[in-house]
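Input structure tokens:
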């Protein structure tokens, strides 16, 4: 990543953006997460909203930090979950919810954040810990942390 970056952006990413990468952006990094953070942190957030029969869900643009989906909230938007989705296989229902609601919502929220940031407006509200949940992945792939691999390599090379 070049050193002259103002802001980093990630959307519905399953990879961890490490400290070395986050600090290269002058303003910071924003990410889009398809849930109303702090609820349903983790990679399978949409599927868990369906599995838990949440009436509403939504999207969050937040400031990345060292925790997974734990940074300060910049923007959120709400949408209703059609009760018909509860009768479907959760993964298929999550895919439809993403395609019909959450994907376009994420694009609009990121656009709003970038317009505000370019005008000097930076919003940050801490997540309310008492409402946080973190559900396990419904996939087998673990979160990839490339920065940790670099640190391990550097530590063993210096011995």
């Amino acid at each position: 990543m070049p050193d002259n970056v103002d802001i980093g952006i990630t959307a519905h990413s399953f990879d961890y953006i490490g400290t070395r990468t986050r600090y290269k952006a002058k303003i910071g990094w924003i990410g889009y997460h398809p849930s109303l953070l702090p609820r349903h942190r983790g990679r399978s957030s949409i599927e868990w909203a369906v599995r838990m029969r949440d009436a509403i869900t939504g999207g969050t643009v937040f400031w990345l930090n060292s925790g997974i989906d734990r940074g300060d909230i910049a923007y959120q938007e709400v949408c209703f979950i059609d009760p018909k989705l509860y009768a479907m296989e959760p993964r298929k229902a999550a895919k439809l919810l993403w395609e019909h609601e959450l994907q376009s919502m994420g694009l609009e929220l990121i656009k709003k954040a970038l317009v505000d940031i370019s005008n000097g407006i930076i919003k940050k509200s801490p997540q309310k810990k008492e409402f946080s949940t973190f559900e396990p992945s419904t996939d087998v792939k673990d979160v990839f942390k490339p920065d940790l691999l670099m640190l391990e390599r550097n530590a063993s090379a210096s011995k």
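Confidence is low (pLDDT under 50) at residues 143-156. The first strand starts at residue 5 and ends at 11.
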